[in-house]
Amino acid sequence: MSAGSIPKGSVVRDPGYPTESENYLTNSKGVLSWVFTLDHKRIGVMYLIGVTLAFGFAGLLALLIRLHLFQPEGAIFKGAEANNYYNQVFTLHGAVMVFLFIIPSVPAALGNFLVPVMLGAKDVAFPRLNLCSFYLWCVGAVFFIAALFSTGLDTGWTFYTPYSTTTDTSVIAATMGAFILGFSSIFTGLNFIVTINTMRPPGMTWFRMPLFLWATYSTSIIQVLATPVLGITLLLLIAERTMHIGIFDPEFNGDPVTYQHFFWFYSHPAVYIMILPAFGIISDLISVHSHKRIFGYRFIAYSSIAIALLGFLVWGHHMFTAGMSPLTTIVFSALTFTVSVPSAIKVFNWLATMYKGSISLTTPMCFAIAFIFLFTIGGLTGLHLGTLATDMHLHDTYFVVAHFHYVMVGGTLIAFLGGVFHWWPKMFGKMYSEFGGRLAALIIFIGFNLTFLPQFVLGSRGMPRRYATYDPEFAYLHQMSTYGALLLGVGLLVALVVLLTSLVKGKKAPANPWGGATLEWHCTSPPPFYNFERAPVVGDPYDFSNVEWDDENERYVSTEPERKLVPGETPEAVPAHAKDTH
Amino acid sequence: MNFTNAFSLLSDYAEPYAWFPQSASTFSETNDWLYNWITYTCLVFFIPIVFALVYFSVKYKKPKGTKAESNVAHNTILELTWSIGPSFFLVGMFILGARAYLDQRDVPDGANEINVQAFKWGWTMDYGSGVFHPELHILLDEPVKLSMRSTDVIHSLYVPAFRAKKDIVPGRYNYMWFKPTVANERVSDAELAAAVKETKDLGETWNYDKHQFTPDGYRFFDLYCTEYCGTNHSEMQTVVVVHETLKDLTDWISANSVRPDGTPPAEYGEKLYKNRGCAGCHSVDGSKRVGPSFGGLYGRDEEMTVGGSVKADENYLRESILYPKEKIVAGYQPVMPSYKGQLSDDDIYSIVEYLKTLSSGDAAK
Ligand code: HEM
Ligand SMILES: [Cu+2]
């Protein structure tokens, strides 16, 4: 099926395919050429492998949790230590998912690959710092795994005091891990801020940046501003454990609620580190696969910044029942509602972008549609939690568990998958099976809802979170959720298989398989190690008017009207690239 | 089977139990109303969003290479409308939520006060004049205020039927209040007797979930700890019983106040063992839990963390109950809360007598 036609007499621009010595994957060989690489694309690929392994590991732990909860008295772990094992498993699941997967997933894996290419630059501003971030990530990961295999960690990923200062498990190893991972995250953020500020090519003003870059930019700001607070908090926690400095532990005149303030001052902004890049991906996916200009570019860009800033003011909503004064509590509730506005704006803008577009239901688009559905549920249920009276009932129940899984899995993970499927041909130069990709998206969508919808009901019926065993009346809903988790697992496995088989069997990818207009589609797939020979001419990132489908070669190409090669008599006063403004 | 049950649970709209546990306090009415109102408001936005999502995906699906029908980049009025419009609903939710919240923080004059102590992993409710019990017993239609403290880590007291929850933070007192509007019935004496006998025959501790009434024969509401507090967090549960009349409540309290005349100390000691949280950490069959087992404890030589050993005689047992952090047995953590001021001399005597019955004759010499 095709309606594309390349207008007669126009010039087709297409970079073709890279030669083996240009291709960043093959231009140098051997393990060391990867270990010591400074190429942001290779670092991005290594991150992609790293976060995928972390996700696989934490995902298996999640299945273990769900299987255990198949029965009220616990189905997997038995005997005297059963509860203890369960607690270690949910702690490790949460900690690995948050610190090793979700936070670095989009910014570090996809961001590393895409930021310089979208900017038409050759690399990030500080390539060595970039490699350093990756190795810090690896060291942090080793600390986490060490914590598991030494005495096990059972504090929950939140490390609440005074439990964490008194339990005899390896809190210090794990917090050191989180501390190091924090630095990895700060360096990445710093690198992107400098890169985006200083390396934009001529013609790319702030408002001509792809929205993915806006999202990365706002994320980086949070990473740089908020993560140090986590670092300090974790150091104080270690000091409290080893030296009893008396700040968090009431036994030494400390206050446990102070710890919660410190912790959420980082961790609330951190949930925006998780979701903002996802917003960026979805904005680009919706626009490219609808082949239509993104609707309300400025509102989307500003709302990213608004979320980044407002996100710093609402941490108290994790502590509504902890015993803050009523006035503080009410102020935090009011501020919480203000963050929901910019998120809503984005959803409306995405829908308006699809309206009267020319939609291709490709795999990335299927993920983007699933994202809008799931993220909307996640965001709307935040309203039940932000409302004080209902939060008194729902706090620390499965309702909260369902809410944050809808935003973090239904939101970030789905966007990440959409992004991986979207940029996969660019990263590895191979096309995957469209049927397989869409099938995976469908199974994941159904499995996810089956897993987490029942948990909202569990929560409003009063099922507390972090319970290893539970009252029999909750069993039906827990069992539904476990079936859902298994289905979700199958869906993710299908996605992985589809991607991996494409590496072996996939067709060679053209430079622009989807019809995108941003700069990464202007270099070959995969890009040459230098990305662009010279800084490319920057057009409007959402102007699809001269992107045409070339049916014969199954690719999109940019066209431009034939130009006269001989310059006119009188030179133009304004250079050509500055003229096509809007 | 289970699936169909789950779906009927979800679809059974007329039955309020589908979404919430029974509504049994003055807060639950407000909460459920507000929760439903927020949910319906969300649906007002969600349904059109999903409709648009699906409709656009079908309607504007085009073959590759087709140009979009329109390329409108923005529409300020439309965008301002959908930015500002929903805010009215948000303000509504905020105000209604905050008002109801203030109501929950504002304890009415004359509320009955009960002191609550939370520990790893159990509860002790203090009914005054030396009466302690793990169950919370209160009076219908009377506001009750709980003054809560924790002896170790953070816990949180949650009664789903009352829609009320508050964290209990060590190092400070936190309070909460509620007014129950539904009384719990008593089961028939025959049913109670059968359950008591069954429990005794099995040699188990009372199973609230299985019987769905207390060892005194009252139906109950669940009370959970909802702040993760370590290994047996999920077992840190007890029950709330709402009595219909003051007489019924005071009868229950006095029945639990002292060792009833004629009850042998060892038998009463066993009851204290089960009721006052010992059973959470100490087994009687010799198996190691959070604390050392009571099986064969009396008369045994206990290895200390600081080295050396101590014979577990009456004085050692008494000291371990009142000052648990003084002597720590090797291989255990100093996590047990002190029972000083919470057990009378007679209570401690009864417990020690009970422990003696768990050691064989020889060791006890
Ligand atoms: C409309 C936007 C949102 C609102 C109004 C909102 C509101 C809330 C509130 C009030 C809580 C605390 C509930 C409680 O503990 O009782 C909460 C918890 C949480 N939210 Fe959101 N939220 C929103 C979006 C997000 C997003 C975008 C993310 C992450 C990507 C997120 C992740 C979380 C997490 C992880 C928790 C639970 C943390 C924990 O206790 O472990 N939320 N949310
Ligand atoms: Cu607890």
Automatic annotation (TrEMBL), chain A:
Pfam families associated with the record: COX1
Region Disordered, annotated ranges: 554-582
Bias-annotated ranges (Basic and acidic residues): 554-566
Biological process according to GO: aerobic respiration; electron transport coupled proton transport; respiratory electron transport chain
Membrane topology listed for this record: Multi-pass membrane protein
InterPro entries noted in UniProt: Cyt_c_oxase-like_su1_dom, Cyt_c_oxase-like_su1_sf, Cyt_C_Oxase_1, Cyt_c_Oxase_su1_BS
PROSITE patterns assigned: COX1, COX1_CUB
Keywords: Electron transport, Heme, Iron, Membrane, Metal-binding, Oxidoreductase, Respiratory chain, Transmembrane, Transmembrane helix, Transport
Compartments where found: Membrane
Domain Cytochrome oxidase subunit I profile: 28-539
UniProt EC number: 1.9.3.1
Cellular component terms (Gene Ontology): membrane
Entry's transmembrane regions: 45-70, 90-119, 131-151, 171-199, 211-239, 259-282, 294-315, 327-349, 361-383, 403-424, 436-457, 483-504
Molecular functions (GO terms): cytochrome-c oxidase activity; heme binding; oxidoreductase activity
Domain of life: Bacteria
Enzyme class, spelled out: oxidoreductase
Family statement drawn from the similarity comment of this UniProt entry: Belongs to the heme-copper respiratory oxidase family.
PANTHER family: CYTOCHROME C OXIDASE SUBUNIT 1 (PTHR10422)
Name of the protein: Cytochrome c oxidase subunit 1
Source organism of this protein record: Rubripirellula tenax
